[in-house]
Amino acid sequence: MGHEYPSRREQRLSAEQFTFCPLTEAYAQEACSWRYPPPYDVFERLSWEHQKAAEIDLGDPIVRDKQYLAIVDQHYILCGYVQLFPLSGVLRLGVGLRPDLCGQGLGAPLMRKLALEARRHAPGQEIDLEVPAWNVRAIKAYEKAGFHITDTYALKVGPDWQDVHCMVLNNKE
């Protein structure tokens, strides 16, 4: 999908401008087209055509409706998405940010906003996420937002097994 995004200078986005709305099929298709530079390319999604044909993940309208939210700016331009994946007594977050917005200092304030949204969806439940141990940029943002590392284990990320940290949101956040 060839969406033209405003240049970084034109954007001047802050996390306060982000809101959440349903992740529509059009937003899902757009998110599947995002490409990240290495080593972040492991976060690229399978093609929309593949997901739609197999009815998996974003291509499954039921999963998309029940577990995903779009993160949009004040003009409803897609800036990211969040998966709210229910586990037993835990709500696991999975977050994707549009590639041109990465590394701009939006991570911590966005995660604080996402934590509030997650608490609204799952009051009283633990909120956690998984992050590759090498992704120091994300880990720092998550820590600033009130998450802390509780465990480290091997998990398949993209084509490879990698050490990942499980990070849990502090109860007082």
TrEMBL record:
It comes from the Bacteria. One of its GO terms (molecular function) is acyltransferase activity, transferring groups other than amino-acyl groups. Residues 18-173 form the N-acetyltransferase domain. PROSITE patterns: GNAT. It holds the Pfam family Acetyltransf_1. Gene3D superfamilies: 3.40.630.30. InterPro entries: Acyl_CoA_acyltransferase (IPR016181), GNAT_dom (IPR000182). SUPFAM superfamilies: Acyl-CoA N-acyltransferases (Nat). This is GNAT family N-acetyltransferase. It comes from Paenibacillus roseus.
